[in-house]
Amino acid sequence: MNQADIAAIRAIIVRHKRRDVMFGLLGIVCLMAGLLTLVALFTDMYVAGSERLGVEFFTNFPSRRASQAGIFSAWIGSTLVMLVTAATAIPLGVAAGVYLEEYAPKNLITDIIEINVTNLAGVPSIVFGLLGLGMFVQTFGLGRSILSAGLTLALLILPVVIVATREAIRAIPQAIREGAFACGASTWQTVRDHIVPYSSAGILTGVIIGLARAIGETAPLIVVGAAVFIAYLPPLPYSGDPPAGLFDWLFADFTVLPIQMFNWTSRPDAAFHANAAAAGLVLVVMCLAMNGLAIWLRYRLRRNIKW
Questions:
Q1: Is 85 in the same domain as 20?
Q2: Prediction pTM value
Q3: Average of pLDDT values for 211-225?
């Protein structure tokens, strides 16, 4: 190899390194643009709504007067809807993920199911709202209730939970399964005592991220029938005259934080816009708290696992 060839190779290397540097700088610029946009939006939201954040804002019902309006019924409704969503999506999603990964035979039917589950994770949320309206509200006769809303959101995040469960299980080394089988354990014993405990960090992370997505959804709940103005709470179990049943609250009318924000932003009064900004801050903090909880749980569980 002569000097001309060496010089040509060096020129190619220098040119490629220059492109790498340019691509890296472009990536940094795009990242900073996105971060600055988010910071600007959150700062504007904080400036507009921070003055409304107080005890009364969390304990007052919605009102026609902006200074007296609060999010009491909205955050209670969001909490109850998320309870139904979690109680439905978590066991079904985890069980489906475990079955597809550990029990289901590898054939055409299983491949079709896997493809459809993956595709459902990217379906627009409004489609799940229409599905919930046709299935739960009309066909099953559950009405425009907390139960219908929770089941609809459970359908929305079910593909996310299934995919997260499968990915977490796939990360478990095959040697764990082989060792359990060599000791005489059955498939169920292996899954119960080894696979699920070792993959619980990843499963919980996917579950909480899915719930954080569901808590901010608006379109499915509008279709299902969330009210934009509710100045009362669902009935407490065994309260009232005659006493309410244990699960009567499942069939009560409801509203949630995103719907309440939509109601306030649609009004011309700037004071209601400040209320919407304050409610947005509460919703953002709730989502950040759920994601932070996912990170903490993942770290805690992984630290306690001993392979």
A1: no
A2: 0.82
A3: 84
